[in-house]
């Protein structure tokens, strides 16, 4: 039975609502449930998923909350509604006591004139005017929203640069400023390494590895994923380079991104030539040879970038990664890997850059890896519900996050996918990330383990491999996370790079690829 | 590079706009954070958002600043009591002014129809209500919107040929506005009552009371209404639901002159009893002050400042300065609040009256924070909530009044000059304190509460003004 309730003039942001909704689905007797604001788009979504009766939507507006519950019986409906009400009540009461809440930016800034940074996470089409309000008041901006037009991005960055302000984003999910984790970021040591990154989990992975190697971060700034494209012209990365060059605390600078457009690369190299501090770049998928003859040190993966940064920051020369204290010998682990026939790797990632790095590393050794973020269009995975041969999925991409929370916030979708992959007899290895830190789920390992336990007995041949992007200081317990995974039989490696390499070694051992 | 590097050496202080979880993680890290519970401008309506973009124009800003200055510069002075037939434009024996935008008979709510039938009898055009209705149905009554007559009236707002009116001059801008004399409490025509006693009282007002007021005003000379309003805010009035302070101040001005000019009047006791017996005596004067002020703000090209808000019981209408006399209408809402014993929400008529002119000028619901005594009555849960209402109004107005000050809120000025753009952008609607009439004619007031104008009025208004800027 479908049950619909609307609440007039009741607004919650979509992330909050999705979290609330997912809790409802855990109630016995509830098949599916959703609470959404009544925009036209959402109404169609809910109707399509059979959660909304036609007659329920006639006078619902974007300011009204619609609740749809598909349940076995009235009891389950009642319990779901009660659970939802409890969540609403908690939310509003905690909000009142904990934080000053305002309706508009102008009102907030009047009461808190010392604010110096806006973190903005609203639907992209509204971002421009909201960002502009902050910039005009002299606040730096971290713009988490995506779906912002290139035109808006350029206009906002130009305005920011004219006024000497940071405009991190759009689509900037991670930054660490003055030791404060913003968005999805880990708690890391402070130190002398300054980072500028076009990618979120790339920045997380590098800052976490730096921390584990005993190094520290001065500032970690985001630029937004498109900054190094020709159109945006590296506006923000060039600006952050200057900012880090002028920052007394920063002694070494790290740049993390996909390869820039050629024209942008030239600007970065020219800018770097004028900076006295050492610069290490990790342009994932690019050829580090291009930095020959420049004062930029090129690296090929996130771990190498972090290791090189730490060595350089200590005034030493970087050597092979196998000398890194974080390097884990795998001989012993390999011995435990059973003989299996299934040939394919399935990488299920919550972090976009981690997925991309895995794709690149695997692609070097395997003949084509299918993906929703494929570099070679021939390997575009057409049906994202079904993996093909070797597949890497970035489950934070639009297809998976439309109408569902990002898997770093709610790992349920990824857990479901683990179970699905295990049903494919060709799945030999399941490769995973597990991202900790502020913003992420309280216990992402638990959901992985729950799925692994479900499939383990039927598929003893599948090798589960994971790396944990997290530090001891993160709000989640790093050691417990690692132990939970290991106890469930997941092979845990210290970095994504080493996790992927271990996957390749398993394939070698099984004779799928040549040693 | 100074600014960005200054950020690195300063303590981080964050304004988080959007996902609340980010605020919570910042709180966990003990970072000073304010959360902005962001809502899409114009309720997510893309076409309206576009209009807002067009209206984010310096010409509009300038025009609104001009409007705001005119509101503050205005000096409404109570100068006289006159008769409608002598002063209102094109006033005939069968002309009836009513609250809100002009409306056809069959669209009118019960109390408005009831009041009109009573008004026809009052004017001697018919001997009975039945006869009066026949005149209406034969199209023999000329209905007008009070605002189009340069006047305002509370609730049904009846203004007819013989009625006495307060005359107010805006000294700064040389414009004039009129309103009726408040009938007092109980069964009154403004709530749709129309029995013989109601009409008899109106006649007494016309024949006995009005000449006394006229004589007294002649003796006092012009009285500054703005000064009384400012004093009343300090006495716990917001001047829509509560006028106790303002009424007392007004009576204090008038009383010596009433006594002085009426020494031989046998009605003197009855007159002073009436004058002192009605806490809402000043309501009409606050309204006419508002009308005199806002008329001076009308017709400033490109201005989105609201110059009138008014309801006829069926539709809510607003005017904005840049669009002159045009009404932008939408169906009225039902007020929410408390009911007198024996009445329930079922009995209440939809929102009605010109009295929302007081909110237009920045008092009434906008000054709710100054009137702790009535916050529960108008449906606010606490004094803090009343303060919050007044603060929220600052988000939809051009500025704060330099003269109408709310002492209970640390002497902040009342939010003044409603900017229709901001209403649409924020989705925050003006808050109105209002009385509620019984939906059946002739019964009277059943309660009081708060009500909001429909958002559509503001949306239509800015769309129309947006056209002029293209």
Strand order of the largest sheet of chain B: 6-9-8-3-10
User: Looking at CATH, which topology of the largest domain in chain B would you report?
Assistant: Enterococcus faecalis V583 fold
How far apart the termini of chain B lie comes to 40 Å
How much of the polypeptide of chain A forms β-strand, as a percent range? 15-25%
Which spans of chain A have pLDDT < 50 for at least 5 consecutive residues?
A: 92-98
Beta strands of chain A, count: 20
Instruction: Give average pLDDT of chain A, whole number.
Output: 91
Q: How many separate domains of chain B?
A: 3
| Helix percentage range of chain A | 25-40%
CATH class group of the largest domain in chain B: Alpha Beta
What is the number of helical segments of chain B per DSSP (H or I, 4+ residues)? 16
Secondary structural class of chain B: alpha+beta
> What's the overall average pLDDT of chain B, rounded?
94
* Name of the top-level CATH class of the largest domain in chain A: Alpha Beta
Rg estimate of chain B, integer Å: 23 Å
The value of Rg of chain A in angstroms is 24 Å
* Largest interface pair: A-B, 66 and 51 residues
Task: Give the second-level CATH assignment, the architecture of the largest domain in chain A.
Answer: 3-Layer(aba) Sandwich
**How many separate domains make up the residues of chain A?**
3
Largest sheet of chain B: 5 strands, mixed
Question: What does this 3D model show about the protein?
Answer:
The complex is a heterodimer of chains A (515) and B (470). Chain A is α/β, with parallel strands linked by helices and 515 residues long. Chain A contains 17 helices and 20 strands. The model of chain A is unreliable at 92-98 (pLDDT under 50). By secondary structure, chain B is an alpha+beta fold. Chain B has 3 domains: 2-38, no CATH class; 46-72 and 294-469, v583 fold (Alpha-Beta Complex); 77-288, Enterococcus faecalis V583 fold (Alpha-Beta Complex), CATH 3.90.1710. Chain B is built from 16 helices and 19 strands. In chain B, the strands form 6 sheets. In chain B, strands 6-9-8-3-10 form a 5-stranded mixed β-sheet. A 4-stranded antiparallel β-sheet of chain B has the order 13-12-11-15, with helices on both faces. Chain B is globular. The model of chain B has no long low-confidence stretch (mean pLDDT 94). At the A-B interface, helix 3, strand 4, helix 4, strand 5 and helix 5 of A face helix 1, strand 1, helix 2, strand 2 and helix 3 of B. Strand 5 (117-121) of chain A pairs parallel with strand 1 of chain B, so a sheet runs across the interface.
